[in-house]
Write a structure and sequence with these properties.
There is one protein chain. With 326 residues, the chain is an alpha/beta fold. It has a single domain, classed as TIM Barrel (Alpha-Beta Barrel). Helix 3 packs parallel to helix 4, helix 4 packs parallel to helix 5 and helix 12 crosses helix 13. The termini are far apart. The N terminus is likely disordered.
Length: 326
Amino acid sequence: MSYAHRAEWAGSDVLGFDKGAMKAKLSGIFAALVTPRDRQGRVNYGTFDCLVDFVLERGIDGLVVCGATGEYPHLELKERKKLIARAVKRSPRNMTVMACIGASSIYTTLKLGEHALEAGSRALLLPAPHFFHYEQHDLVTFCKIVARTLQAPCVLYNLPSFTNRFDTDTSIQLLVAEKHIIGIKDSSGDRQSLVRFAQARPKDGFSLIVGHDALIWDALAAGWDGIVSGIACFLPELLVSYYRGFRAGESETTCRCRALVHQLTEEINKLPIPWGIRLGLDIRGIPTGPLPLPLSAARKREIAQFRDWLRRWLPEHDVASLAATQ
């Protein structure tokens, strides 16, 4: 079916969606994967495969491919399709791979969604369009058409640092009303909205996934289901231990992990996203290639300071052994 016909059909008032339809539940720790590059700037698929194996071996519950941590605006359509397919192929059959289908227009978003579903992605991460500014009613219509056209599990991706923002009321409206919008990954850093989302959720309703590492404890304490973490891409042991410790009621482990994540985010946030994650992978033996911009003298100093700090910090806290103690 052509996009034009599908969009026209999806916008019809006679679809008869069941507003109380079952919503698939997502939970656990999802690693937001970076996209490695070679020296010529091409996607390094071999290193990407190694990265997938690296996080899976350390107990991650799911993967996010081609999100903000994966620098999706830099990727071509064919590259995103190939990355999604490789992640699905290397993952256990029952694991959820969330593929980000963000773009600046609905045409590319729908193409990406179709490719991701063909590749075997079990959920689609749906950011608002980036670059141009839109109103909330524009975003509501955009999300409805995408979800109804693709007819697949979609997770709203609130990423206001890089895309149009989903207001809390807008997100709740879509989560409650739309059959195929099964949850939200919120990376806004808005602590006040955590309880509002949890209170607005009906029993056995939509999934709540926090995408801001600094708010993990707050989100889980408010009843959220899971975490999508960039830190989990290079230090999955820490995030796995954090999540499992919280769920098991192990306050000592939870407090320790919370403090360590806070220390890490403070240092990582001094650099552009996701440079700190990629540098962390380099230190752990998975080089991800050149950064996307030439480095100023000031950036070179900051990167050298971060590398020195992380090389000292990792053995000092024995972070890589955390998950083994669970």
